[in-house]
Amino acid sequence: MKKHYSSSFTGRLAALLLLAGGLLVPGLFAAPAAAEKFPAIGPLAEREAPKAALVEMGKRLFFDQRISGDGAIACATCHDPAKGFGDGVALSKAYPGTKHFRNAPTLINSLFKSGFSDTGWGWSGHMGSNMNDVVRDQITETMIMNMDMRIMHERMKQDPVYVAMCQENFGGECSSGKARKALVAFVESLVSIDAPFDTGNLSAHAQRGRELFEGKAGCISCHNGAYFSDGEPHNTGVPENMEIFKDPMRHLTYRSVIHTHGVPKMGVWRRDVGYFEVSKNYGDVGKFVTPTLRELNYTGPYMHNGMFATLAEVVEFYDQGGGQDDPLAAELQPLGLTIEERANLVEFLESLSSVTPVTVEPLKVPQAYKPIENWLEVTN
Amino acid sequence: MNILRYLTLILMFTAGMVFALGMADTRAEGDPDVDAPLAPLGPVPEPLDNKITDAKAELGKLLYFDPKLSGDASLACSDCHAPKQGWGFSDPICRGYPGAVHWRNCQTVVNSGFLGKLFWQGNAKSLEKQAKTAATGGVSGNGEADVMEQRLRQTPVYVEMFKQVFGTERPILNDAWQAIATFERAQLTQYDTPLDRYLEGEVGALSPLAVQGLELFTGKANCIECHNGAMLTDEKYYNLGVPRPFEWEENGLNTITFRFELYAKGSHEKYYRDFKDDPGLYFTTKRPSDMGKFRTPPLRYVLFTAPYMHAGQFYTLEEVVDFYNEGGGDNDMTAYAGSKTPILKPLNLSDEEKEALVAFLEELSGEEIVMATPKVPPYEAVPDIEGMSQAEAKRIGLEFHLSATAEN
């Protein structure tokens, strides 16, 4: 497994210093100790908004079913703007003829996911580690869009709207590279707007929740930084979603994916192997990459397999020290939270969602292709 | 080996070749090659590595009709090679994958076991390879191997049948292509046509008009030049000047596929930009002189396989005969590459002669091969492993991790 040795070393050093301080002045550093070991939570960094025309092009691609192999699904099918750019079900739909075995994560704030972790994207860290690569993965993956990108760019070249958009944004003809850049721009335009946490309007309960988050509950040990994720895989013992194995379509899709990734004994597993898919280290079985906690109000159900319907369930799960699992890392311990503390924690989590939903008006993209006038006279 | 002995051997070999060719060569003057005589269809060739068995053919039949072997599990072999459409497809250009369209005509599967070159471009050398290529191509099956294989493994009927036929614990996708090819060889071969009976000595098997057509076929019309041997094809490549299909210009979906093929099959950018017609064999050889050439199609079963030519340019056999009577045609590639075959010349056939030729072509087919669509086996869930508890399954492989940790 790849690690940021430098940062984890600094972390350990900080922890040692804090520990030493705590010994000298008992009690004084105890509460903030957890928080200071990790990148601080806080408002998202300012960023330059992507060019509006490029976002428009990306948005059109995002809602266009012709970007999938058989023209049946668009990005928006599983990343629905009405559902926090997830799809609101425990296990995602996926390409026709397959069914996915994990939850569709939100796309909001993905901009801030880039470039801070050497673990790939996706619940099991199996994808690229920058958005352009991930967009390509999703378009070409068999169980996602199953699209041959060479056909995709020819489809775009047949649509005068895309032809004009490619010309305006990049100059020249449409290509899959230009499509990906436009999609990246669109996804980068999806950023939290006015979360109480960012605007400094935390209720008293939420404020106490924040203290628990950074202190007693220790959530910050994984959910840290402005994006609320360390980008690393962890095993929290979330119960298996046995639908993956009870539904033959999901089971075959699951096996096909782990087979592609070279997971041994693919027919035998009756659990989602998680980051093991990438590392092939048995200690990583059941690890999943920490998700962001922003915009949770719009993105239930939760966890990699959608096993929890509400934030209260999630908090209760962690309060019990996570789930039972054989190789469960000793990262999680029962927290001993009171009912009130759990409620405060939930209220804090809720404050991480924008009051104004981050969404866009769905676009209906005409699917028919027109012939090119004077086709015989113009170059292809 | 000393040089003298070596040279002697070469001389002997060369002399033998000249002798053999001289014996067999009954060509008329100007004839570019030896034309194998028409012959009854012998037994279907059986590959050494894929023997024909009834059980394998039955498995192949199910797979042929099963849409699991495509990208979105909606398209079976039988959707583009449809029993009721001559085991081909009755649109000029094949339907292809949902959301797309193909770019050439779907050919009949009947008797395809006798061919050494499959597809119009001849780019598959066996039925096994043809099945695989069709199931995975972007505008045909668009299937991906891992998913298709797992679909078979999720189907207990297949697990059992593959085990019986191939002796494997679980279905292997390559074996699926073997089974499909076996089905095609075993059950889609038609030996009993009027032509076969006639050639075997049954004088009345061909109608008198067709007999007249046969004489034209092998004589004045010179069809035999390319459509020869038992399958009525020399499996060579020619540009006849068949006109460009109108679909590429008039239907946007077809234009997309046309450009995609130019792009994906690897032509020079100049050709990708400029071409408005199918360069055919050029994609394989990259020789400009091969532009617009397609492999001679067999003529058996043509009664049921309209429309004709590589992009279904002609709807009837009458149109086809008219085309040849005029000495073929012109297309972009005859103009650009000068690749039109010199074999074609105006034939000056009378209306009666054309009629006779069509009658002969129609009697190259036996009865229509009909087959009820079989019910394909369903997926079934296997949440548990026999003899293993869920708790045990959860621990699969974990003991390695624990012992490794203990050693450290």
Structure description:
The complex is a heterodimer of chains A (380) and B (408). With 380 residues, chain A is mainly alpha-helical. Chain A has helices spanning 5-24, 33-36, 52-62, 75-78, 131-140, 149-157, 160-170, 176-188, 196-199, 204-214, 243-246, 248-260, 276-279, 311-319, 339-350; strands at 233-234, 288-289. A two-stranded antiparallel sheet of chain A has the order 1-2. The radius of gyration of chain A is 22 Å and the shape is globular. Chain B is mostly helical and 408 residues long. Chain B has a two-stranded antiparallel sheet. In chain B, helix 9 (208-218) crosses helix 16 (351-362) and helix 14 (317-325) crosses helix 16. In chain B, 44% of the residues are buried. Mean pLDDT of chain B is 91; it is low at 18-25 and 397-408.
Features:
heterodimer, A: 380 residues, mainly alpha, Cytochrome Bc1 Complex, Chain D, domain 2, two-stranded antiparallel sheet, B: 408 residues, globular, disordered C terminus
> In DSSP terms, counting alpha (H) and pi (I) runs of 4 or more, how many helices of chain B?
18
Strand order of the largest sheet of chain A: 1-2
Unreliable stretches of chain A, pLDDT < 50, 5 or more residues?
Answer: 1-32
Query: Mind describing the biggest β-sheet of chain A?
Result: 2 strands, antiparallel
Q: What is the strand tally of chain A?
A: 2
Mean pLDDT of chain A: 89
Q: Unreliable segments of chain B (pLDDT under 50, ≥5 consecutive)?
A: 18-25, 397-408
CATH architecture of the domain at 54-187 in chain B: Orthogonal Bundle
Number of strands of chain B: 2
Roughly how much helix do the residues of chain A carry, as a percent range?
25-40%
Largest interface: A-B, 58 and 60 residues
